[in-house]
Amino acid sequence: MMQTYIDEAEKYLLHTYNRYQVVFDHGDGVKLYDTDGKEYLDFVSGIGVFALGYNNKEFNDAVKAQVDKILHTSNYYYNVPAIEAAKAVTEASGMDKVFFTNSGAEAVEGALKVARKYAYLKDGKTDHEIIAMNHSFHGRTFGALSVTGTEKYRAPFGPMIGNIKFAEINDLDSVKALVTDKTCAILCETLQGEGGIRPATPEFLKGLRELCDEIGALLILDEIQCGMGRTGYMYCFQKYGIKPDVLTTAKALGCGIPMGAFLMTKEVADNSLVAGDHGTTYGGNPLGGAACAAVFKLYKELNICENAKTVGEYLFEKLEEVKNTYSEITDHRGMGLMQGLEFDKPVADIINNALDNGLVLINAGTQIIRFLPPLIITKDDVDRMIVILKEAIENAH
Ligand SMILES: Cc1ncc(COP(=O)(O)O)c(C=O)c1O
User: Fold this and answer.
1) pTM higher than the cut 0.70
2) Residue 225 beta carbon below 6 angstroms from any ligand 1 atom
3) Using an 8 Å Cβ cutoff, are 383 and 373 in contact?
4) Cis ω on the peptide bond leading into residue 159 (within 30° of 0)?
5) What is the pLDDT of residue 1?
6) E strands present in the chain
């Protein structure tokens, strides 16, 4: 049965993913079920999307109620769910203004436009530069791809947008070496995801903040993967006592309803995009707004950030033990419910073994296993995961 679906998928869907051989049908809490009825423990959450777990009744009801009310108007009119969502996300992030998008990549596009317009209004020039980080990932559209610090993603699609330079994360001198009088922004993931679960250090982030203040550039933090409570803080930068000028967020923002956002301080909002500079048909529509508002309400009710912190610490202890047990594991990085184990070999076999045994894991690069469970997981779920993970490591080639 499942194989029939897979054959059909490969016939019609463009093959831009080497998909795992499973068709998921439904979910409940931290469990997923395939079309043959097999149960899986989920440590991916749709790559950091399903923070609330699957089939949360209150969330589903909020979305369904909005479906029956109105799905879409246009950004030329106000709608109540988007206003509620805007209030919630600005309060939670400490930023002042928000623009809603449909995806993470679009949020990054918007952030780049904000940075260029802010600089343009200051000096009237159109040759500004942006410094991004090696190993970063910001999305697949041209602007987002242009600032993505992995050559293989960009290479076949040149030319990229111009005037982007890449520095090393956690090496402030490498950033400083790229600064010129054209630098308008520095862009960094607070905790790099796709590039291999690499956290920016507190010193590096503080250094970037000071550098941006000194040269009058904007600090853009991309928290599309590491934000929304994943690290135990609503936004990861809040752990470090610094604040970006522009912030991007997505994934768990809509918990399954496509939703992203870029946010900024009042100072940036007052000196960048104005009416006519940016827009979207679907971004911030009533459905997305209702989902997003429900997400923030449920985060509070369910103490999502606290759970991510507590269970994240437990996961850290357990993964440390795993790392110390197997010599092929060379590093363990991350925090909260966003962690990675680096191996001295490709991890595809381990992930496939785990899947066979009912555990969903995902890689970040060929040699790193990434752990991004729903933020409602318990210590018992971690224990169950560790048992299957160890078996999968032991049975891998
Ligand atoms: C840090 C970061 N930025 C941007 C993106 C792009 O988001 P989307 O896939 O929603 O366009 C991702 C997606 O994984 C991401 O992890």
Assistant:
1) yes
2) yes
3) no
4) yes
5) 85
6) 24-28, 31-34, 39-42, 97-101, 129-133, 164-167, 183-189, 191-192, 198-199, 218-222, 246-249, 260-264, 329-335, 338-343, 359-360, 362-363, 368-371
223 in contact with ligand 1, CB cutoff 6 A: no
Nearest alpha carbon to residue 20 among 34, 36, 39: 34
Q: Which of 100, 187, 225 to mutate to test the pocket of ligand 1 (most atoms within 8 A of CB)?
A: 225
Q: Which of 138, 148, 187, 338 to mutate to test the pocket of ligand 1 (most atoms within 8 A of CB)?
A: 138
Which atom of ligand 1 lies nearest, measured to the CA of 141? 11
- Residue 125: what pLDDT? 98
How remote is the CA of residue 203 from the centroid of ligand 1, in Å? 25
Q: What is the pLDDT of residue 32?
A: 98
Q: For ligand 1, say whether the CB of 222 is within 6 Å of any of its atoms.
A: yes
Per-residue confidence (pLDDT) for residue 307, from 0 to 100: 98
pLDDT in the model for residue 397: 76
Distance CA 252, CA 49 (A): 4
Q: Which amino acid residue places its CA nearest to atom 16 of ligand 1?
A: 225
Report the distance separating Cα 129 and Cα 181, nearest Å.
9
Mean pLDDT of the chain: 98
CB of 381 shorter than 6 A to ligand 1: no
pLDDT for position 346: 98
Instruction: Kindly state if the Cβ of 149 falls inside 6 Å of ligand 1.
Output: no
Q: Does domain 59-301 have CATH number 1.20.1090.10?
A: no
Place of tokens 């994943």: 230
Query: Does residue 262 line the site of ligand 1, with CB under 6 A?
Result: no
Structure confidence at residue 354 (pLDDT)? 98
- CATH 3.90.1150.10 residue ranges of the chain are 2-56+303-395
Q: 138: Cβ below 6 Å to ligand 1?
A: yes
Architecture per CATH, 2-56+303-395: Alpha-Beta Complex (3.90)
Q: Is residue 79 within 6 Å of ligand 1 at its C-beta?
A: no
Tokens of 133: 């980080």
CATH 3.40.640.10 domain residues, the chain: 59-301
221 CB near ligand 1 (under 6 Å): no
Point out the residues of the chain with pLDDT beneath 70: none
